[in-house]
Every structure is written in C-alpha cells, then in structure tokens.
Specification:
The strands form two sheets. The protein has an eight-stranded parallel barrel, surrounded by four helices. The protein has a two-stranded antiparallel sheet with strand order 1-2. Helix 1 runs parallel beside helix 9 and helix 7 packs across helix 8. It starts with a strand and ends in a 9-residue tail after the last helix. It is globular, with a radius of gyration of 21 Å. Helix 1 links the parallel strand 3 and strand 4. The protein is of the alpha/beta class. The chain folds into two domains: about 300 residues, TIM Barrel (Alpha-Beta Barrel); about 30 residues, no CATH class. About 40% of the residues are buried. It contains twelve helices and ten strands.
C-alpha cells in the first residue's frame, strides 16, 4: 500500500479506503462481527489506514464494530464518518432527526463518537445534500466542531458540484477550514460525475472518494451468469450486462480478476481518486487488494472507455468541440501549453 495526501490537507491516507457499510447484519446482507473484524485486520495488515463509515450504516452497528477494531491503536487510523441520514430505529415523528442542519450535525456527531468510542473523528462528511439547509449554517457548524477538536477535517458526499464550490468560497471568505474531499459514485457503469463534480474537485485539489466502483456487481459478472450471491438489483439492462462481459474479457486477457480491472479503471483516471472497497468476506477483500499489483495498459483503458460510451453533454461537449475551439483560438490551440 502507498499513501497520499487527502486533498489540500496534510493528512496521509492509504491509496485505498475500506468501506464498512457491510459491517453488521442489520440490513440482511452484511458481514457478522467476527468476519468484519477479520476484514479490518487484513486491510490493516496490507497497510490500509483509511476507514469509511456512517452514522446510519447497519443502524449504527458499523460504527460500533469500527470502534472496537480501532480501539487498540486509535491514532493510527483515519476514520471517516457521515451525518445527515436518520437511523431506521429513530422516531419517525422527529422531523429534525435527519438533514444537514446544525442540530442534526451536532447530535449525529455526538452519537457517532459514542458508538466509535473515541474523542474525535478524523473526517466528517455531509452525507447527502438536503436542498433545504443554508450552506453557511453547515460550514459554521462544521467549523464549530473542528474548533472543539471533535472533528479534524470536513468533506462532502453525494452533493452537487455547485454546492461544494460555494462551500469552498465561503471557507476562503470567512477564514474557515475548507472542505478537503468529495465522496461520490464513480465506475465504468456510472460516469455522470465526470461532467461537473470531478472537474470541480480536480480544479480545487479535493480528494475524490469513489464508491460503487464495481457497479453494484455488474462489472464483476454477477449479473452475466448464474450467481448465488445476494443481489441488490433484479433487472439489469442489456448494455450493463455487455459492459460486465467486456470487463471480464479484459480480465481474462490480462490474467486478473474483473474486480481488479474495474477498480483500476477508477484508480487510473486523472485526479486524486481513492476507491472505497466494500467487502462482505475476506476472499472479496483479498481479490480487491490485488488491484495494487495491476496497471491497466493504455489499450485496455481505451477499450474500456469505448465500451462505456459517455457524453459530457452541454456545455462541455459544445465548448470542447473543434468548431468552438476554432472560434476562440483560430489555428493556435495546438500551440498552447495547458
């Protein structure tokens, strides 16, 4: 395992992050406690120090398991958790139980600290943008927690690019701690974030934490052949099936597993991208960790990109067109070092 800085911060994190949404059986498809601890230990043995959880994962069980796993060497690990979502067991009549508000953030963090059995969280994500809370309230509350030492860094997950850009502007204007990362779904199957979120993150040097890198199992062939593993989707479209089969073909040609090919397609995209590994068994984790020994060739990257057709849409496709470039640059575009 190698390490990188988490966005514009000085925090050093492993090049892969361990996602723990699978820690706990509360939702019917996760790993039991013993298996979760084995997965954590194997990841740590491989040099991993970056752990991702959330206040609502498996109704809080994930945070409790993570807390037990890190207890012996708390300061060695970079633990990220999230606030916004309500627990399944929460009072449905409590209108302020979830959301992005200061009240929701402070209550969620206090509960996460108890479940994790720690004094601080290394990284707190706003989990999902709620389109109702003033962004200045979010940033003020996050900086309140940072000043209190309960949170060290703040970031966004599943949030539009324009919101994160606004947050960066507020941080600069007020002298607040700036967001350091953006977590989002990114895979060969899901490339929407290439339109705005990833370019924004790269421009502002934010780390990109990619979840869903295996496309819900589509990219590993789960839906291309008989498979008794639990499935989250009952109807997968033919183009997605074809995409999974293409990944498997490249995997066979390169002597690697489909998961390693899919993960490395994400790892080899431009920017500071850190895949999040979600595993229910040691075998899955070992397979995923094998991506560290893989480098996809330019030909394979081109083949995969062609298999997963993607258009940037307006305005990017328009502004990058040869016609518009000629209107702006004439014949000089090729002379410009960008």
């Amino acid at each position: 395992m190698r390490y990188r800085l988490l966005g514009p911060s000085g925090l050093r994190v492993s090049e892969l992050c361990l996602g723990t949404m699978t820690f706990g059986e509360d939702w019917g498809w996760g790993a039991d406690k013993a298996t979760s601890q084995q997965i954590f230990s194997r990841f740590a043995e491989a040099g991993g120090n970056f752990i991702d959880t959330s206040n609502n994962y498996t109704n809080g069980t994930s945070e409790r398991y993570v807390g037990e796993c890190i207890a012996a060497e708390r300061d060695r690990y970079v633990v990220a958790t999230k606030y916004t979502l309500r627990l399944d067991s929460s009072n449905p009549a409590d209108i302020n139980n979830g959301g992005n508000s200061r009240k929701s953030m402070l209550r969620s963090v206090e509960n996460s600290l108890r479940r994790l059995n720690t004094d601080y969280v290394d990284l707190l994500y706003l989990h999902m943008w709620d389109f109702t809370t003033p962004l200045v309230e979010v940033m003020q509350a996050a900086n309140q927690l940072i000043a209190a030492g309960k949170v060290l860094y703040f970031a966004f997950s599943d949030t539009p690019a324009w919101v994160v850009s606004h947050a960066l502007g507020l941080a600069e204007a007020h002298g607040w701690a700036r967001p350091v990362a953006l977590q989002l779904p990114y895979s060969l199957r899901s490339r929407d974030v290439e339109r705005a979120e990833i370019p924004m993150a790269n421009t502002h040097q934010l780390a990109v934490l990619a979840w869903g890198v295996l496309g819900g199992g589509v990219l590993t062939g789960k839906y291309s052949q008989p498979d008794d593993r639990p499935r989250r989707e009952s109807d997968v479209a033919a183009p997605d099936i074809a995409l999974g089969e293409a990944v498997m073909a490249i995997a066979r040609a390169s002597g690697r597993s489909p998961a390693q090919v899919a993960i490395n397609w994400v790892r080899q995209q431009p920017g500071n991208i850190i895949p999040i590994l979600g595993c229910r068994s040691l075998a899955q984790l070992d397979d995923n960790l094998g991506c560290l020994d893989v480098v996809l060739s330019p030909d394979h990257l081109d083949q995969l990109g062609a298999i997963a057709p993607f258009t940037l849409g307006f305005p990017y496709r328009f502004l990058h067109s040869a016609h518009v470039r000629k209107l702006i640059f004439g014949e000089t575009f090729a002379l410009l070092d960008r």
